[in-house]
């Protein structure tokens, strides 16, 4: 598990290897990840957008940006947390993800970024 706190918002990430399959004559490695967003600040906040940088061991990089997470824009009061699961496909058995969430503080009405710490994606069969 990796964790990081930015502006009172704690991000925790746990990853899993889900398996591999062939698509368009190329092998794809499937990874899952569970993210927990915990509001440790004294203000209510809302997650509005995400920005991911996904890279694999073959130097392929994909940028994924969009509104919310899994179709939701959760509001977190002080002390609340929100957990969701998602996944990605890589063309190698190793990779990494990192990025940030764009959030708004309801007390100050200011937008701010919360860092998603870099986390590794590793197929279990390839770990030595």
UniProtKB/TrEMBL annotation:
<protein>
    <submittedName>
        <fullName>Co2+/Mg2+ efflux protein ApaG</fullName>
    </submittedName>
</protein>
<dbReference type="InterPro" id="IPR036767">
    <property type="entry name" value="ApaG_sf"/>
</dbReference>
<feature type="domain" description="ApaG">
    <location>
        <begin position="3"/>
        <end position="128"/>
    </location>
</feature>
<dbReference type="InterPro" id="IPR050718">
    <property type="entry name" value="ApaG-like"/>
</dbReference>
<dbReference type="Pfam" id="PF04379">
    <property type="entry name" value="DUF525"/>
</dbReference>
<dbReference type="InterPro" id="IPR007474">
    <property type="entry name" value="ApaG_domain"/>
</dbReference>
């Amino acid at each position: 598990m990796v964790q990081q706190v930015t502006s009172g918002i704690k991000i925790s990430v746990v990853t899993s290897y889900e398996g591999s399959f062939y698509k368009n004559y190329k092998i794809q490695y499937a990874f899952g990840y569970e993210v927990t967003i915990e509001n440790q600040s004294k203000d209510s906040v809302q997650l509005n957008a995400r920005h991911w940088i996904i890279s694999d061991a073959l130097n392929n990089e994909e940028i994924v940006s969009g509104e919310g997470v899994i179709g939701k824009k959760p509001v977190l009061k002080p002390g609340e947390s929100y957990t969701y699961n998602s996944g990605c496909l890589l063309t190698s058995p190793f990779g990494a993800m990192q990025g940030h969430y764009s959030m708004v503080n309801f007390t100050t009405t200011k937008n701010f970024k919360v860092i998603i710490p870099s986390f590794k994606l590793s197929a279990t069969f390839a770990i030595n």
